[in-house]
Each structure stands twice: as structure tokens, then as C-alpha cells.
What we know:
The complex is a heterodimer of chains A (404) and B (1028).
Chain A: H1 11-24, H2 42-45, H3 48-56, H4 58-64, H5 67-75, H6 89-100, H7 107-156, H8 172-178, H9 180-203, H10 221-227, H11 232-235, H12 250-257, H13 275-289, E1 291-292, E2 297-298, E3 307-308, H14 321-327, H15 332-336, H16 353-362, H17 371-384, H18 392-396, H19 399-402
Helix pairs in contact in A: 1-6, 3-4, 4-5, 12-13
Chain B: E1 7-8, H1 19-26, H2 41-46, H3 51-69, E2 76-77, E3 92-100, E4 105-113, E5 116-122, H4 134-143, E6 153-154, E7 157-158, H5 161-177, E8 181-186, H6 192-204, E9 208-212, H7 219-229, E10 234-237, E11 244-248, H8 262-268, E12 272-273, E13 279-280, E14 283-288, H9 293-297, E15 300-303, H10 306-320, H11 331-347, E16 351-355, H12 360-373, E17 378-384, H13 391-403, E18 406-412, H14 416-419, H15 423-431, E19 435-440, H16 445-448, E20 452-455, E21 464-469, E22 472-476, H17 489-496, H18 503-514, H19 521-527, E23 529-531, H20 550-553, E24 561-565, H21 579-583, E25 591-592, E26 597-599, H22 601-606, E27 611-613, E28 619-628, E29 631-639, E30 647-651, E31 680-682, E32 684-693, E33 695-696, E34 712-714, H23 715-720, H24 723-726, E35 731-734, E36 737-740, E37 760-765, H25 774-783, H26 790-794, E38 803-810, H27 817-822, H28 826-840, E39 844-851, H29 860-864, E40 870-872, E41 878-880, H30 890-894, E42 901-902, E43 938-939, H31 945-958, H32 970-974, E44 980-984, H33 991-996, E45 1001-1002, E46 1014-1017, E47 1019-1021
Parallel strand pairs in B: 8-9, 8-18, 11-14, 11-16, 14-15, 18-19, 19-20, 24-30, 26-29, 34-47, 37-46
Antiparallel strand pairs in B: 1-38, 3-4, 4-5, 6-7, 6-20, 10-17, 12-13, 21-22, 22-23, 24-31, 25-33, 26-30, 27-28, 28-29, 28-32, 35-36, 37-44, 38-39, 40-41, 42-43, 45-46
Amino acid sequence: MSSATFAQDDEAVQAGKKLFNTNCAACHKLNKRAVGPALKGISTKYDKEWLYSWIKNSTAMIKSGDAQAVAIYEEYNGSVMTSFPQFSNVDIDNIIAYTDYTPPALAVPISGNLNLQQAEQGVSNSLILGALTLVLVILVVMLFLVQRTLLQIAKLSGVDISREPRPKRKPIWMAFVQNQFLVFTSVVLLLLSSAYFVYGYFMQIGVDQGYMPVQPIHYSHKIHAGANQIECKYCHSSARVSKHSGIPALNVCMNCHQNIAEYNGEEDLENGYTKEFYTKEIKKLYKAVGWDETNQKYTGESQPVKWIRIHNLPDFVYFNHAQHVEVGEIACQKCHGPVEEMEIMYQYSPLTMGWCINCHRETNVKVENNEYYSKIHEALSKKYGVEKLTVAQMGGLECGKCHY
Amino acid sequence: MASNKTYWKNIDQLDSANKTVQKLEENEFVSKLPENFLSDEKTLEESSTSRRDFLKYVGFSTAAATLAACEGPVVKSVPYVNQPEQIRPGVANYYATTIADGFDFGSILIKTREGRPIKVESNSEAPSLGCANARIHASILSLYDTLRIQGPQANGKDITWEDLYLQAGAMLKALAVSDKKVVLMTPTLASPATEKIINDFIAVFPNVNHVIYDTISSDDALNAYEKYYGVRGLADYDFSKAKTLVSIDADILGDWQGGGYESGYAKSRLPKRKTSKKAEMSWHIQFESNMSLSGANADLRIPCSPAEQKNILAYIYDTLIGSKSSINLNTQIKVAADKAISRLSKSGKNGVLVSGIEDETAQGLVLAINTLLKSQAFEPKRPKYIRKGNSALVKKAINDIETGVVKGLISVGVNPVFTSAIGESLKESIKGLEFSMAFTSKMNETAAVSKFVASTPHYLESWGDYEMKEGHFALAQPTIRPLFDTQQFQDVLLRLSGKNVKYYDAIKDYWNENVLENNSWNKVLHDGYYSSSKQGQIKHTPDFSSLNLSSLRIAQASNMSLVLYAKTGMGDGQQANNPWLQEFPDPITRVSWDNYLTISYIDAKNNGLNNSNTANGALNGSYANLTVGDKTLKVPVLIQPGQAKGTVGLAFGYGERMGLKKEMQTGINAYEFYNDFKRIQDVKISLAEGEHEFACVQLHNTLMGRGDIIKETTLEIFNSKDKKHWNPIPQVSKNHMEFDVTSPEVDMWQEFDRSIGHHFNLSIDLNSCTGCGACVIACHAENNVPVVGKREVRKSRDMHWLRIDRYYSSASSFEGDIQTKDSISGIGDSLSTFGKMEKASENPQVAFQPVMCQHCNHAPCETVCPVAATSHGRQGQNHMAYNRCVGTRYCANNCPYKVRRFNWFLYNKNDEFDYHMNNDLGRMVLNPDVVVRSRGVMEKCSFCIQMTQKTILDAKLEGREVKDSDWNCACSNACDTGAMVFGDVNDKESEVSKLVEDERMYHLLEGVGTKPNVMYQVKVRNTDEKTT
Lengths: 404, 1028
């Protein structure tokens, strides 16, 4: 059963939601005071006409000395609300419709239904299994009965059913041992196959492909990079200039999360990722960064987050993000995989030397619009007689380029 | 005549009968594989561990290690909560700041990574003292010294700063009320804002008297300058303008008058061809007792006693002003002095004379002679302020402390108990004072007896303002937050004088008011320096008519003079707990981890003192009892070729025991003999029992009979003869035809096309290399080179990627030394020849040659590596993949230059090597871009590939070609004399590509055919054959 029972036909609410999210959400929340007041049921507090003029030009209203306007201006310490002269009255109506709209409380019945269904299924399954077992038992009992009857009949009719003793043969393992060829081949096979597995085992030591540790804060790349389409380098900004991509400092999180205090996106109930769950994770961020939500200010008491590092290159390898991401313009996903689909981040690539080398052999150097390459690229292409140079041809396989 | 000269590294090499040297020359490798590497033989025999046990342990540990290796550790990453805007992980930030510790002064740049300083670089834009010496380069490690004092103390117990202010303030007030005298003893501060703070402090506490105490005094030069120019300072010199340079015991390349002269000096030493095709360079004569760096670089060096130096100076003055001198000089000295005089008068304003003689008259005479010459190199109008100490006042202050006239002592960054000859009695007097307070960053002898110990920050954690030369201002800014609970003494003084400002505000106010001339504070802070447009305050011309030379004329040599000096590595000893500096081999003696008595061969022989080499090349020396006045110390003896007869030398800075790790407690304290703050003392020496083991690298890696390593010629030959004559290319024969060894005809290697892309070359000019060693320390810092300790250095296991070889050659044998040696026949003849050679060792010529991996295009090391751990890059670098190396050491054995270094042990996180890499604090200095090598792998110079790669990446990111000036190595960056030039030879405009074509260019051991990417420029000496 779909959990997306949000879907409503009310177009006004939908349009209002869209407008709200693009224009109002930076400062307002539905149920809670943020930079501006909570907007839930705003139409009950203020007259509609008043709201029209307020939203379109709040400054003018404050200047004109409107009592309500001045009151709210003073309540929020003189911070002025952005004016939205581009809104039509219909737009504002839609927004108000959205703020007034209360989604029907569906969550409880849904989960109830689910439970019921699961229970029903559980009963029927065990019933069938029980019946089958019963049939099986009856069959076995019947077999025994038939055999006994037959034996009795034979006994009564004087048939001797004792078998003749078989001639004694060599046990199979003895025959195997004595066949030297077989022993030899199987030993060789055994050795080869175990070597194969041992090699395989050793080669995966230190290769942590798929490493998916539990992080102190459940940070979902799926929500940030996937649903919200945030650019990778917005948070991992040092990838542009540095060898490190950098785990963003918490102040980067707060650029958005100062306003986004609760999660209102899709839920994944099977894994327990409910809205409450995500909102709780945001609270963890607030605690770490020392953000007092009610007073909307920093307390100064912070607790740095100890993330568990997933991509661990050995010390003797030098890897530079800027070289690959900025100069080579390689998409982050090439090495890190479909991060925008990862609920929990994991190591996508093996990060072995063979993997690096392979890519260097296959990838062409991106030389367009980079004066650094123009001369050397021309000379080298002539030398190798190729149009495009691979990284390897530029010297990307030399030991000292990565090991120093 | 490059190839005919005989070079030697050690006096024993002159004795062809010496078996040890012979054996060392024959042996390609100094030491065999150690049979007893676990411990010495005796312990092995006594050990109960059998071979079977050993195998069991090996088996168990292998299994355990394998099991343990299967599980990767969990690595945590902790990002900033609030990331500072300018910090980006992985990107270095540079800050301009200034070092001024009372001994070393300089404008520098600090490289920081993730907020921690990791390297010092010269601020070459600064107008004066913009070049960092070896000690300044190493000072970054002193920041991470675990023995730094971590908080304020009172009577040996930790207290808080508030309590200290309260208690010390109350005591000071009580002293002020009862008008009891207090001495405030500081080193030379050269800091205008600090001087204002001190004056304000004295205004509040009028009983305080400020005394400036230079640990190693320049008192006489200061007195002379003050007498004739009216300001306490030092005349400055620009040696790049000198064509004739006469130095009488002035170590201008060392710490003479604060140092910092090498870059100007080196400029004048380059033989540049003028339009007339004749090359010109300066001529430098040095009269001195100890063999100094300056003497080693001089064209003519005359060893003489301190008394003779005074005579020479007076003689030169007398002759220059045209009067007949009555002074009797010995013939050799007289010839040299006459030569100096004729050159000086010929050069006129291009001549300059400097002196380090500790005599006010002599120093006055120097000023007079330079004024007389109208010397351009002499700049008295803008004095240097980096030495200001006044020995007379210091003596009076110490005397007052001892007699009880003074009741209180505030010492700031000085340690008079250790650095004065009367330390022991001073210690007792300080204990008896009513009030004593020591501002120090490490626990020392003076702080230990002081009531209050105020912990001060390292200079990299401090603010500061300086006027190192008149009109040349500099700022210091913190590059890291204070690591410990420390306060700058200026802040403390401000607080105690009741002012509610910090030193930072005081500097800013002072500068805005008096210095900046409406320039922006932020701009100056960014640059680190500011040159004032104001004219110098010295206007009047001095009157030298009152000079009385009689004391100089009649100076008589004593039987034996002790000449105290400061070593290049240790200076005044402030950084004795710095393992980089302890392991830094002295440029002249090549001894690390020690100080010693340098003595001439003759004097050593007469006193029964000797040096000997053990079978593996390590040096041993006798001990001598050294007696000055009623004080006697037992000192190891090192025979120093070139040491003047009748003199012995001993270096300051060693022998401290307090505040030093056990390994660093080396040498003996020369300050014990620093009576009356005079470097020259009458001394008696006698043989003492025992044999001292030196950690000397001088007999390691002998020349193995290959004489062509240093190529040198004289200016005359350079000007008159063809290149073939003084820089020949070795010839080889093929099919009975002679070919240049560089010709492709005789090359047995496959040649690759190296004309595409970058191709790095390093040029080292033997003419401008002064041997100062800044590159050695810079290389240590950049490349995480480990410190191995005295015991390992003695076994020739030093890890320096870059060494500066020092070669001696006898001046008299320029033409026919080899012939002389070859023509020896019979015992009688050989005896007389050896006699001659011994004489040569009295005063050898010296040449310095920095040697690092030569990055051969045809590298012998690469072909022998069984696992291909070392390979060649297209950019000319010889790569070394540490993680691939299995430690066979074949490469080191096959290297003709002996530049590969093997990690015999794990040098980090190992208690056996308790240096900076063994603690968390010390490891903060490590460069995160370079691997810390593990045990059992080979390492060597990489041409700083991390730096060249960074340069390339920066160009790529900005989408431009690389500029020639962008290429750098740690060593070429640190080289202030311009001797090292690094760059891309495929860039035809680059400086290094021009140097490849230079007529003086040669490769080391060209005959081997390795085609190195490091080149040297032939050394040209400005000597003419006739006089030598």
C-alpha cells in the first residue's frame, strides 16, 4: 500500500504549497515561530484584505501607522518582511489555503490496516503449513502400515525374503587412494582452488568496498543531493581547491538548517525513517552546533561531530580532489557512485591501485580551455599519433605522481 | 686545473700510510651488514633465548600481525563546528612574521597547514634581514618542544596568572615604596613599542633599571659606533658592492654583529663576464684564528693569533694613511697584509674592511678606515639595532645583585646563571633576592632559582614589532593560538603598570602614531615589514682624530689563546633542545651532537693530543684539560686544519642540562670561560684521560680516489684559458677514438625523448654556496626527515637527504700535487713529502659542495631494484615508492653519489628515538603532504616532488602555463645566496636552462655517464698563482 496518501486534489492547496516553499519558507514555518511568525491558521488572526496589502508591501503599512502592522513589526525586533508585489490576490489566497489546510489524519488507520493485513497473512500461512505437515505425517504412517501388512502376507505365504549376501567389494575411498592419477589431479585441483580463495581473501584485506558505518548523525545524501538537488561542492567546497573534499563544517549545515528545523519530505516507513526520525536527527545537529531553537540564537556550547570516515586512503597515497574535480571535471559520482540515491553513505569503489590505474588508462585528459595543456598536449599527441591523450600517456602512471 | 688538485676530507687522509683510510677508500660501503644488530656480542652470548625460541617468536608475531591486519581501524573525522574563512583543509596559508630572540633576527614567512605552522621561509621582499639561516629554519620545531614551560609558577608550584599578578604586583609595589633597586634584564629587543612599554613601566616603578644583556656580546663595536656616531647601534655593510673585502676575524657569514650578510656577499662572488670578456669578482682576504665559514670562503685566508690581528689592523691603517709602520709582523702575514693594503687602495670606494676584534679602539679604527676609503659597502648612516647589549652595565648589575645593592631581578628571555662565567655565585645571589621573576619559555637555570616563573609564548604565538635597522620596521603576528598557558612579557608589564591595554593595541597605537606615515596597518601586517621614507637620524660626520693605536701596535700574543665562537647550528644555545640543530653537522668540522676544542695539528702534537678513526670511519679524539684562570674543564679535542697556531677554539651553546631532553644534553658549557664577556681568553691545555667518541660525518663516504668531484680554477685561468682547460669533459675511447663521455656515441643506455613537458634541473653554484646549511634544515622540515641521534650518526646512518660536503685542499699544491705524490720514491723522500703535506694542512683551502640525489637520467639505482620501487619520471625526477620498497639496499650500493638513506629503525613513535617524532606535540611539525617513512625502506631526495606537483596543479587550476619563478624546491627556496637554482630546462626562457649552457657547468662524476639532472658550476677562486 502506498504511503503517499498526501495526494490531494485541492489545487489551491497544491499551488499554495509551492508558493509557500519558494517564497515564504525561508523565514516562516507552519507550526512554529522562526524568523517570522508561524503561519498556520493565519487567516483566523488577520483580515484577508489586511493580509493582501501586508504581503504586497509591509513597509508602507508600517509607515502608515497601521496598529496591527506596527505591533508585529515591534514583536519581531524591527525586522522588515520582504514585500511581494508580484503576488496576485489569487496567489495569496492559495498560500492562505495551504496554511489553513490540515491533512487528514491518515497515519494511524494506515498503520492499523497494515498490522491487520500482516496478521491475517500470518494466520493463513501457518494454517496451510500445518495442513501440509498433517498430510505428510498421515502418508508416512500409511506407508509403514502397508509395509507391515505386506511382510505379514509374505510370512504367511512362506516366501523367504532374506537377501543373499553381496560379494565384498573394496570401499570407495580405498579405490580412490590407490588411484594415483585421481589423487594427483584432485590434490592439484584442491590446491588451485584453495589458492584462488586464499588469494581472493588476501586481496580484499584493506579493501573496504561497501563499507557503510553508522554515523553519529543519520545524514541522508538521498534527501540532500537527491530530493533537494543540492550540488555536491556546495557542502564539500574544498574539493575545488584542495586535495581534501572536506567534511563540511557545521556552520555550512546551518546555512539551510537555521530555517529547516523539521523534516517534511517523503518517509521510508519500512526502514523506520519517519518524519519524526529525521527531525530528531536535525535536533542532533542543533545540539552539536549549539543552536537554541526557541530563541533562534547560538548558545556557544558546541560539540563537534565525530563522523566516521568512510574513504580511507593509505598514508602513502597522495590523491588530490581539485585535480580530478576541477581540472579533470570528473563527476563526483564516477568514484563515489550514485550518492544522490544513498540513504546511508557507503564506499562505492574499491579504491585499490588497480582501480585507479585502470581509470588513468581509459580516461582522456580534458584539455579544452586550459592553457596549461595546450603546448604539451599538442607535442605529445604528435608523438603518440593520437587525437586525444589518456592520463597514462601524460605520465599518470608514474609511481612518484601519487607516492611521495 | 681542475683535475690536478688533491682534495681531502680528513687529516688522516694526508697520511698515505694510514691503514684505516686506505681500507675505507677501498671499501665501497662503510659498514658491512651488522652481524650484531640486535645487541652487542656479549649480551647475545649471555642471552637465554635460543634459536628455536627466536623462531617461535617470529612465527607467533607473524601470525599475530597477519590476524591484526585483517581488520581496518575505524577512522574518525571531526570537522570544525564553525570553520574559519581562511582555513581550507589541505591548502597551506602563509603569514609574514618576524623572529627576534635576541640572537637571531629576521623577516620570515610561516607556512601553516590546518592552522599549525610547519615551515619557515625567507621573506625575501623585506629590505633587510630577509634571509633565514639554519637556526631560524629550525626554530619552528622549538614551538613544538614538549619541555616548554606550560604555565606560570611561584616558588616551584603552578599558580594562575591572576595570582601571579596579585603576588608579584604587591611585591613590586613594596619594593618601589621602600625604593629598593630592581633590575629588568632583557636581551636586545629592537622593538620600539616594547621600549615604550618598558619606559611606562619604569615610570610606575622608578626603582626599576632596564639592562640589555646580549648573551654573546658585540659590546666593543657598539661602543665604538656610539662614540663616533652618537647612537648605540652597529654600522651596516652591503658586501655586494665590495670588490675588495678585508676581514680581520669578522665571521661575516656567521653571526658577526648579528649576521645576515651572506646574500650580499654571494652576489659579489660570482665571476661575471663583462663586455671585455674578462670576468670580475670580489677578492676576499680573511685573517682569523678559528676556521670560520668566512675563512673557508675567502680567497686568501691567513691564520693568526688574536694579538697578531690587532697588529695587522694597526699596520693596515698606518700604511693606508701613508705613515711608516713600526709594527713587526712575521713575513707571511706581512706579505698578505701588504697585498690587502694594495688591493684596498686600488679598489678605493669599492674596498671595505671589517673586523671582529673585541677592542673599542680596533672597532673605531674599522669605522675610520672605511670612512677613509669612502667605502660604498659601508653604510653607517642607518645603523642596525639588533645588538644593543652593554657589558659594563650588565657587569654592574650582576655586581649589584651579588653585593645586595639590588633587591630584585626581572629576567626576560635571558639566562645569566648559565650564560655567564660567574653563574654559580650568581645563582646563590638570585636565591637571596627579595624579588625575582623570570620570563621564559623553558625551564632554565635562572628560572629555577627565581621566585616567579612567567611562562612566555614562542615567537610564533606572539605579537611583536621591531626596528632591526633604522627605518626598517617589521611586525610579528601569531601564526597559531598559544599552545600553553602563556603571556607575553609586554602584556604582563602593561598589566603590572596598571594599564588596561594589550601589547597588540600598544603596537598598533605606537605604529599608527610614529611609524606608518598614514599607511594601512593591515597592509604592513600582511607584508611583515615597512620601510620608512624618513632620512636617517645620523647626520654628523665623525671625527677619528682622537684614535690612539698604541694598544693595538704593542699587542703581544699569549702562549695559548682560547677563541670562543658560535657554531652555525647552535648559535648562543637557545635552541639546544632542538633535535634538528643537534643533528645538523657543523659546516666546517662536520661534527654533530657536540662541541669540542678545535686545535691546530702542531699544537695537538706538542700536547700529545690526537684524533683517530675507527674501522668504520667514526672519529675518536683525546680529551684535554682546559684551564682558564682557576677554572678547569675536560673537553674533547678535534684537530682542525687551518686553526692558527697558539690558538684553540670552543663553541658556545652546548653543555646545558636544564630544560633539555637527555639526548640533547651534549657538549660542555663554553660560557664558563666567558670571563668579562670577552671571547679571547688566555688558556692552558694539557692531555686528559679518556677518549671521546664524536658523531662526525667527515670520513663517511670518502672520495674513493675520484678527484673530479669538485672542479675549481682561479680567476686568472678562467679569464685567460679555454674552457677545455679548466672545465674539461672526461674522454672515453671507442674504437681507438676519443669521445666526450656525454656524446651519444659512447652511451650504452637507450635515450628517451625528454623534450616534451617539464624537465627539472637543479643548478648549484660552488662560487656562491657559502656552506651555511639553511638548505639542510629546510629539507628536514619539508620532507619529514627523521632525526637518528648521536649513536646512529656515528655509524654513518644519518638521514640527511641533502648533505654539504666540505673538502680541504692545500693551497700550495694547485699545479703539481698529484705529481708530487706520484714521484715519491723511497722512505726518505716520502718522509719529506709528508712533511710538506702536513704543512699544507696548516692552512688548507676549503670548498663546499651540497650533494643530494642527482636524479640521473641514466640512474644506476633504478636498474638494480628487484621490485621496481625506484623508477624514473618523465619530468626528470627519480621516484621512490616507499610502500613498494622491500629494503634490499641494492640501490644505495649502486649509487655513485652515496645519497640514498636507509631506515635502519622505525624513527617515529619509537622510544629508542625520543625526538620530536616520538610525541604528539612534535609530530605537529610534520608536513602532511609527505609520507613518514617506516622501518626497512630506502629514502632520498625527491626534488620536492610534492612542491613541483603543487605548482603544476596551481597552474592547471588557473588555466595558465607555469612561470619560471613558480618552480621551487625546499633547498633552493632556502638558499638566500642564490647558489641553488631550480627550474624547468624545457622552458627556454628559464634561468636554469641558461645555467645548463653556462661554461662553468659540470656534472658530478660525469665520467660515470649517469647524466644527472643536478649540475654544478665550477668554483672560481680569485687567487693568483704567484703569491700562494
